[in-house]
């Protein structure tokens, strides 16, 4: 297996973190760089919240709530309960007490003038993580969701407050034209021997990353193979709104549409063995078990994916 290869992984939250925890067990962590969506980030009660970065950090640090796949294990909600009981602040966005520690420290460091990249590296370092964890950019590039029922919503209003019930008409990455690709992200992609696109939501988690100016070009020019893993299994998403969004955008819910969405940046696609096989010219495909129910599945998928790419005569 590719133990001496540098691997860069583009990912969102829960689906991406599952593959990440397989990769971290399959490879030396120092070989891995995770480039994480920050389109979901927002300010809430004065705190900077970065849900996808936190999901990945908690997962790799063994702190994640295993039932939800996000938040901290055995967390409590005393702070939110107090806000609701004493100050009538509606607790629509759940922040556990232990989770608050991350948001407090991140906000404190950002207020001192450090970039999100620096702050994330410091947080990951304090959690003793050895893989590199990088936000896709330092600028705030909030994902805005235009909905039929409620007009344009901030991502967390759409996702959490309205529980992704509104019908999506369009998705916009606010401010993305002026965002700069951070140097560490550029270097990680240039130095990568393999680039993986995790089985995250293509429209909500990967599109914001691919919208950062220069990133798509870098992937297109890269000598390294770029390989995506399907988030669609047997005509459905494993979790979350991916399939619902595809229907609302007028797409068929199938892996081929996901591969087409990534388009010419892809060299390979890991499809699920439960899916109808498809062929796209110039795209290598393999069918594996991509359903990651436990840690064994995650490591097996990580290994099988890397072995497959390693078998290409490049
Ligand atoms: P979020 O930001 O927390 O919503 O998470 P992501 O964007 O990273 O992941 C959501 C996507 O992950 C959904 O489309 C799911 O179908 C996909 N997903 C979650 N678990 C699995 C899994 O075990 N296998 C595969 N193939 N996809 C998964």
Describe what you observe in this structure.
Helix 1 (14-26) runs parallel beside helix 2 (51-60) and helix 1 packs across helix 12. The protein has one domain (7-146, 174-313): CofD-like domains (Rossmann fold), CATH 3.40.50.10680. By secondary structure, the protein is an alpha/beta fold. The protein is 39% helix and 18% strand. The structure holds guanosine-5'-diphosphate. The site of guanosine-5'-diphosphate has 24 residues, from helix 1.
Outline the fold blueprint.
Elements: E1 7-11, H1 14-26, E2 32-36, E3 42-44, E4 47-49, H2 51-60, H3 78-87, H4 97-111, H5 116-126, E5 132-135, E6 143-147, E7 151-154, H6 155-161, E8 168-173, H7 183-191, E9 194-197, H8 202-210, H9 215-221, E10 226-229, E11 232-233, E12 236-237, H10 242-248, H11 255-262, E13 268-272, E14 284-288, H12 295-310
Parallel strand pairs: 1-2, 1-9, 2-5, 9-10, 10-13, 13-14
Antiparallel strand pairs: 3-4, 6-7, 6-8, 11-12
Helix pairs in contact: 1-2, 1-12, 4-5
The structure holds guanosine-5'-diphosphate (GDP).
Guanosine-5'-diphosphate binds next to α1.
